[in-house]
Amino acid sequence: MSDDPVLLITGASSGIGAATARRAAAAGHRVVLAARSEDKLAALATELGGPDRAIAVATDVTTWDDNEALVAAALDAFGRVDVVFANAGFGASRGWLEETPEHWRAMVLTNVLGAAYTVRAAIPALKDSTGHVLLTGSVAGRKVMPGSLYSCTKWAVTAMAEAVRQDLDGTGIRTTLISPGAVQTPFFDDPAEGRLESDDVARAVLYAIEQPGNVNVNEIAIRPIGQAA
Ligand code: NJP
């Protein structure tokens, strides 16, 4: 079996996660692709080289059993997990009277509990590989945005990255928070000028991963030129 490093990505069916999978595969990683959309994941896994290089695992990150099964599938296919990128998430319109309560519930569970579950499920494997945890936060997790519960979820992810970093201190596992500004992905309903491309963020992820083992890049904030806030 190959000993190429293994990168597990949640939210891999589109946007930042899919772009990171492509970048990482091109850099020699084997990849484990997780999201709910099985068809998109399967197509990406085929594009990235099929079962020896990329596997698709249908996963709802809000479900603990799915996260456990995801890591088990990675170990079964590739024997190790070197990097976990907890990236699955989505937004909501701003305004405390916007969106449905059910949308809020799904968003909070996905962005906060889902990320925590994914990291928790992966830690035993990452201890074996002396691996790396990355989480997708947001610049919205660094400032208060009027009426944005999404921003609140990303504040939680900012805190989570630091809580995990301190908890894993002494294990050799590295922890990185990726905090993007606006990125042109299906996160937004409509395209607009002046956003980053997913691949811009993917390169930032690879930068953190590719540092020597003694270097822990703790946070990367990345905005498009022209995004002031
Ligand atoms: O968006 P998109 P991004 N279980 O919609 C998956 C953050 N961010 O790449 O399950 C498992 O292309 C969903 O797949 P599916 C953002 O908050 C973005 O922009 O098949 N997976 C898809 O693969 C998020 O944390 C911007 O529907 C679940 C992926 O999540 C991360 O970047 C700015 C899931 C979302 O991909 C990636 O978002 C920023 C679940 N329960 C932060 N629910 C931005 N785009 O401007 C969803 O600061 N997914």
Cα-to-Cα separation, first versus last residue: 47 Å
Q: Would you identify the CATH H-level superfamily?
A: NAD(P)-binding Rossmann-like Domain
| Average pLDDT metric | 97
Number of helices: 6
Segments where pLDDT lies below 50 for 5+ residues? none
Q: Can you list the strand order of the major beta sheet?
A: 3-2-1-4-5-6-7
Principal-axes shape call: globular
Secondary-structure element pattern, one letter each: EHEHEHEHEHEHE
Bound molecules: 5-hydroxy-NICOTINAMIDE-ADENINE-DINUCLEOTIDE PHOSPHATE
Determine the fraction of residues in helical runs and give it as a percent range: 40-55%
CATH architecture name: 3-Layer(aba) Sandwich
- Counting helices, strands and paired strands, the structural category is alpha/beta
Number of domains: 1
The CATH class assignment is Alpha Beta
CATH topology tier name: Rossmann fold
Structure, described:
With 229 residues, this protein is α/β, with parallel strands linked by helices. The protein has a single domain (6-222), classed as NAD(P)-binding Rossmann-like Domain (Rossmann fold), CATH 3.40.50. Helix content is 42%, strand content 16%. The protein contains six helices and seven strands. It has helices at residues 15-26, 38-47, 64-78, 101-129, 149-167, 198-209, and strands spanning 6-10, 30-35, 54-58, 83-86, 132-136, 174-180, 219-222. It has a seven-stranded parallel sheet with strand order 3-2-1-4-5-6-7, sandwiched between helices. α1 crosses α6 (198-209), α3 runs parallel beside α4 (101-129) and α4 (101-129) runs parallel beside α5 (149-167). The longest helix has 29 residues, at 101-129. The protein starts with 5 loop residues before the first strand and ends in a 7-residue tail after the last strand. The mean pLDDT is 97. 5-hydroxy-NICOTINAMIDE-ADENINE-DINUCLEOTIDE PHOSPHATE binds at residues 10-17, 35-37, 59-62, 87-90, 110, 114, 136, 138-140, 180, 182-183, 185-187.
